[in-house]
Amino acid sequence: MPKAICSAPELGNPNCNCGTLFEITSTGTFAVLYAFPGNGGPSAPNGQPVLIGNTLYDTTSTGGSSGFGTIFSFNLQTQSLTILHDFSGADGAFPSSLVADAAGNLYGTTLSHASGQCGISGCGTLFKYASSGTFTTIYSFSGHATGGNPVGGLTLDPSGNYYVATGLGGGHDLGTIDKISPDGSQAVNLHSFSIVSGGYAPNAGLALDSNGNIYGTTGLGGKKNDCLQEGFSGCGELFEITASQGKYVSLYRFTGRADSGFPAGGVLLNNGLIYGTTSGVGPVAPVSWGTVWQFDPASSTLTRLYNFQPAPDGVFPESNLLLVNAQYLIGTTYQGGNGNCSSPTATGCGTVFKLKLTNR
Fold it and tell me: pTM of the prediction?
């Protein structure tokens, strides 16, 4: 039976709320595979594990002996979890989710530490955990031209180059999009985000099409006069960096109206279309609890596929989307559903959702 296996960064162990590793079948049956214990162990897993054979691989953004996160594996047959690497700060801290190459090597980034002057805790790293069990720091971000504090994880191209968005550094100190060579010896700034010209504050990973064009979103910026009621200049935008010219192109600028605003999670490419989510606009009308959207580059048209509402619906979709059987989008919401999560202001503990694509 097809199933999705994900992790949640919170709740699970009632004494810790350190997160869980869970699976959900196509019929909606939910099961917790592992509840992270805290107390010096790994906690706050990052979301979408990598499956190689019968083993899942993922990171936790905190926990471990130094509190800076871990890389772990989980054997689906034995239901056992193994810590593969414990971040110390000198090799990075607070890792993102992982990607794998064809040989089973794992790659990721850390938000901070290692080196550079990005606040008080370093600018982050790019690392490799080889299938042989060897950990290597490939690149240390400096916070200068190629940015610092990488966000949203890595994207690999067929030649082994890494693409990543950063939250700081660049020409305007608002983050960058970088291309880093396989051995980490060369790093190129492809774009510096600016509050003056376009979006800024990238908060998710990038996607590459077969021609080498890069796609992503920014959480803020775009149309400067929109989302002012929330205290921001712009509601975010969808962008492309063209492979032929290396030019940054704004494909769509969110308005905070029917299209909602503040895109979250990465973008998904499928059959020439781009899919993503917004985390919502509020509390000033028009209130939005988040959307799933589709963008057609051929017509420059954005279509709202689903508009989230409070319980029993989920609200604030902020994870990456998964495409299943070329016709369903799977994702999670940060809040909503039927739980209360022990807070007077909470709208529920979150949901897993499935959305059928009607044009498939």
Answer: 0.90
Would you say 165 and 216 are in contact if contact means Cβ atoms under 8 Å apart? yes
For β-strands 237-241 and 248-253, DSSP reports them as: antiparallel
pLDDT tens for each residue of 280-295: 865 444 567 899 999 9
Rg (CA), the chain: 20
Quick one: CA dihedral 144, 148, 151, 154, positive or negative?
positive
pLDDT tens string 15-60: 556 888 988 887 888 899 999 887 778 888 987 899 999 999 999 9
User: 292-295: which pairs have CB atoms within 8 A and are 24 or more residues apart?
Assistant: 292/317, 292/321, 292/329, 292/331, 292/355, 293/259, 293/260, 295/238, 295/251, 295/252
**H or E stretch covering 275:** strand 273-278
Q: How many CB atoms lie within 10 A of CB 320?
A: 24
